[in-house]
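User: Can you help me understand a structure? I only have the sequence.
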Amino acid sequence: MKTQKLNTKITISNNSRFVQLFTAIILLSFLSLTSCKSDKNDESNNEPDGIALNERFANNRRTAVQTFQIDAATGGTITGEQGTKVIIPANAIGLNGAAVSGNIDVELIEVYDKASMVLQNMSTKGRKPNDDEEALKSAGEFFVNAKQNGQQLEVLTNITVQSRGLDPQNSELMNIFRAGDNLEDTDLWQEADENQDGINDVAQRGEGPGPNGTFVLYSVFDMSSFGWTNLDIWYNFPGQLTDLFVDVPNGYNGDNCAVYLSYDDEPGLARMDIYDTQLEMFTEHFGRIPVGKEVHFIFISEVGGQIYYAIQAATIQQDHTEEITNLQPISQADLTTLINNLP
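Assistant: Let's start by predicting it. Here is the structure, written out as tokens:
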């Protein structure tokens, strides 16, 4: 049986009700999809971004690196923008156990103020030999490194670091602490034994020429390897100690924000780096916070490329719980000023 081909032509006028209805449906569907996509992007942009915050910390460290060039065979002294000196003896820097010759690049970071400690994520929190964690008083944190043609070098003979001038009213002898060999390290500070004699190293006290013919006090110590070092002493607070809890706003946790505890009128601060997922609060496990101590809590996060912060004053009570409220956007420069103006 032969099948006939049906050839039916349907013609619809452009201004027909059908075309108008069909066009409206397509347009509405498109707008709905676009709106959903836009809402999703807006929602994502309003979420705290822990990756961006950590990248900000890392970039701040990279930006803080000062680079100097010296001849490795003759050695030399470099002086940082904030007054730190690094003294490198002749033939003290090498590669695979042998001294190198020619120019080398010496890298230095100086961290003396609380804002740099926060924004470079290098708080003065240390780990004791018994694994307890406690805050430290700092007279300066330093990163020192050397490379030649981009290749990592090593210390063959101890180099010397001299801190900037000390406040005569707060010029205690400081111990030496280490916190990792690489720029990116975030280890807790631990007592150093650069001389490998089983004793925590203590910085020496010196004095030298200052402005207008005066003399300034400084600390000086030896480094046996490159990386992070710190001039510190343990707080060792007398009196009653307590646990501390920090309740952050909904949506914030240990992955997307940072909380620091700044002790008033003390040179240093500690990061609250433990987040209890059951309590949904930051805490610390050793009960080392002094009751009655006046402090400031510093909260920082990043949302859509914008820093959000809170700074709250408090006096520590027994079993203290601090609720972080009223987050505000701020520039990094303005946050630096606020933190460094804290007592």
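Now, to help you interpret it: The chain has a mean pLDDT of 87. The chain has two domains: 52-234, 237-340. Let me know which part you'd like to focus on.
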